[in-house]
Amino acid sequence: MEKILEINNLHKNYGKIKAVQDLSLTVEAGTVFGLLGPNGSGKTTTLGIVLDVVRKTKGTYSWFGEDPGSESRKKIGAILEGPAFYPYLSAEENLKVTARIKCVPYDRIEKVLKTVNLHDRKDDKFQSYSLGMKQRLSIAAALLSDPYVLVLDEPTNGLDPQGIADVRELIVKISGEGKTIILASHLLDEVQKVCTHFAVLNKGKNVYTGSVDEALSNKEIVEVSAPDRERLSDLLKECPYVSDFTMHNKKTMVRMEQHKTAHDLNAFLVSHNLVLSHLVTEKKNLEEQFLEILSQSS
Q1: How distant, in Å, are the alpha carbons of 1, 33, 68, 186, 229 from that of 65?
Q2: What dotted CATH number matches 3-215?
């Protein structure tokens, strides 16, 4: 796949504070790539560097396989700060101002307003908009130049549940139109629902990179029980598919090895003449995976 963004050994120091440390990652075309991490992990600093807003200490990065420059920046739409528009102008008027700055024809305005579902409110003043609508207008402004890539820093920060849902739906919609999206977030649910791939940053370091599907599928937990608990325990110790297990009252929680499933476990037990009375699969959510990654990197 085409490499949209490639970061190699990136560092950013603020005096003695190391905001970004030896960070490397690759974002491929067509993905929704999430930079996930707690506040202060270096997400915003990293985006600031690759958008030429923050000066790096050392390291390299490239957009579209080329050194960063004015041509690559034309292919990128970005929102790093909160919505910044003239409060007394309408949505359409504010986008005309943005279009003039970006040297974009006005005929793009109607299209992007429809994309973010604000066309019916285009004549309303910006100051009358809800926070969610303001954020959607920011996304419309970022889409004016029809960029290859959309970069969003904490796109649902401060929004109410409806606003969060609207922005998430919009991200999925824009991705479905073929654009690559890079977003930074500390909200696990946000990354799990909209991203295809993600990297976990901790203290400025990249401590994990992978696809969301893999992260959620390779850590299956199975709840089982059997009349003969002692026999069950003995077999679980022998089973090559079991990473570890914990027995609680009548139920036993079994953590499977990577890519092994409840079907594999049940087949093994049956082959050893043990029939389970209870079997339920529980897949790890991203929060559990995230906390495990952070604990291993500390």
Answers
A1: 12, 17, 9, 28, 58
A2: 3.40.50.300
Of the candidates 294, 204, 215, which has an alpha carbon nearest to the alpha carbon of residue 24? 204
Q: How many CB atoms lie within 10 A of CB 49?
A: 24
As annotated, the residues of the chain forming the CATH 3.30.70.980 domain(s) are 218-297
Token representation of residue 201: 């940053």
pLDDT in tens, 193-206: 899 999 999 999 99
∠ CA(221), CA(223), CA(225), 5° rounding?
150
**Model confidence over 23-61: pLDDT tens digits?**
999 999 999 999 998 888 999 999 999 999 999 999 999
Work out the burial of residue 112: count CB atoms within 10 Å of its CB; fewer than 13 is exposed, 13-18 middle, 19 or more buried. Answer: buried
Q: In whole angstroms, give the CA distance from residue 142 to residue 182.
A: 13
Contact yes or no for 52/73 (Cβ under 8 A): yes
Under CATH, what is the fold of the domain 218-297?
Answer: Alpha-Beta Plaits (3.30.70)
CA angle 156, 184, 191 (to 5 degrees): 70
